[in-house]
Write a structure and sequence with these properties.
mainly alpha
Length: 149
Amino acid sequence: MKSLFNSAENRELIQRIEKLTEVTKPLWGSMNSTTMLTHCTVSLKMAFGEIVPEHNETFLRIGRMVRDRLFDTDVFNKNLATTKEFLVGDNGKFDDNKILLIAYIKRFGGVNPDSSDKAPHPYFGELSMKEWDSLIYKHLNHHLLQFGV
């Protein structure tokens, strides 16, 4: 599995993000490119503990049922359900959102993957940085594929 901790793979994701424009259309789904950038930044903010998801036993039960499948796959299915933390409203300016997402990707790539830091995920509870890395990479890849980059 590819990783944000691998500098070449981190750069490759950033290069794909750089190809996005404000008018890039999705191949599926209803998000525009600005919304997608904001949406993807949420998972990085969660990994750093900047956004703490609401504790929800129902979501955590679902997460326990699908965790192994999700962590074992390389790609996410289209139109997966999400939690309210990932449903973003006012999206700001495209260029600002692109710069912010890239900054978070670079910041995450500089984290010690073996750090004992953990942060909660709405479906999977406390995750290590290696687990966050796996989910974030797959999530970013999923949405970049959605926008054809």
